[in-house]
Amino acid sequence: MMTKTAYAGALAGALAAALAAGPALAGPAPIVLAVEGGAIEGTYADGVRSFKGVPFAAPPVGALRWKAPQPVRPWPGVRPAKDFGPRAMQLPLFADMVFRSPGIEEDCLYLNVWTPLAPASKKLPVLVYFHGGGLAAGDGSEPRYDGAAMARQGIVALTVNYRLGVFGFLAHPELSAEGAVRASGNYGLMDQAAALRWVQRNIAAFGGDPAQVTIAGESAGSYSVSAQMVNAQARGLFARAIGESGSVLGLEAPPTLAEAEQQGVAFASAAGAASLAALRALPAAQLLEVAGRPGMPWFSIVTDGAVIERPPLETYRRGLQARVPLLAGWNSQEMGADALLGQAPATKEAFAAALERLYGDRAADAARAYDYDVPDAARDLASDRWIVYGTWKWIDLHRRVAPTYRYYFTRPRPGAAGGAVHSGEIEYALGNLDGNKVYRWNDDDRRVSATMQTYFANFIRTGNPNGAGLAHWPSVDHPAPNVMRIDVASDVYNPRDRARFEFHDRQNTAP
């Protein structure tokens, strides 16, 4: 780790070298900063400075595979920070992912920073965004997460890569036996926490305020946010949290360490590795191939007793999570009715048959909770079972300890039938419609984006989404209506959906 004196020396030397390159530089002087590891040179465009591919930990390769992230390794001279670093090892799982990174590598622990070009009179709030992708895919280089639009709002924005899938979440008895604390798995969560520690030590160099950090994410990124709120490694490293569609409080609790270790042993056997040493010696590409075989487990967050000390639901019920303001919600069509009904038509008979199949003697209870138009009820039940109930539970428990704001995003993308699909809000919330070339965005889309981004930016600045020119958004402990429905005309409403979620609560506690 560099001392302040070393920082100053590195920065002075880097600036001198850059200026000595010649006077024929157009625009501002080279943007060189000193961070842990050495000096970096970024770029500037349209009022925003950007620094891409900045290492925040040592490459987790070789003996460091399946170990906690280690301190970044110093580099000589000025490191270019103009291109995204490699993305984490992953299979091509999701068709909507567009990457600007050069490819996949185990050496993936890089982050990207966007900050206003003009110097600020005071330290700026900070947004750290964790990408989605089921903890198995995704990357901070995706255009929908680009931080330039938030930087133009006066926010220092970061995206963070973290280890995924078998590289990020494998538990194994030999891994658990290695450390002082008998635990394994959750390396991806450790990476995220390491990035937050890097932010605390380095973000002032970019104009950011380490006391005003908001963590945010969508889907797996939202799961990650809810997990970091119970991760002791991340305690005190952020002041606010945003979750878009997902939390660790869903109908399927994270596996115990013993359960996850059994998955790890089965994986090692499938890979032909009789020991941890043999498993570490296998090429990364071979491990990825084995992980993609039919029947292999989906590696995810583990209740390991260390990073996740106890079942997350217990932590939230006891109010032991980080007591920071939370803004969270979901979209109107996280799943379609066909996810529940299959090829059957959306009729009362087909819906009743699905309830009977899923809930048996509790089918009548489910029917009362979802007693409305079948296409909508089937859509909602499919969405609730997958990701919505867990998001609601997070909101409902957290509101007891800190200000909490709930949204419901209903704007479909141009040309789409039905409602707002899973992940469909990201470009709107982060001001990145133009980064998605698939859709012909219109004035209404831009109006929705301006509204949602402004709510998010206000929350990042203050912990409260409200501000001039916006419909007032009460916290969820305010008497109804208190849910902000975000669309062309955004306003609060009372969704009257508690019966649905209480039905799932009873399912969680039923014998």
TrEMBL record:
It holds the Pfam family COesterase. Residues 32-493 form the Carboxylesterase type B domain. Keywords: Hydrolase, Signal. The keyword Hydrolase applies. Residues 1-26 form the signal peptide. Its EC number is 3.1.1.-. It comes from the Bacteria. It is an enzyme of class 3 (hydrolase). Belongs to the type-B carboxylesterase/lipase family. This is Carboxylic ester hydrolase.
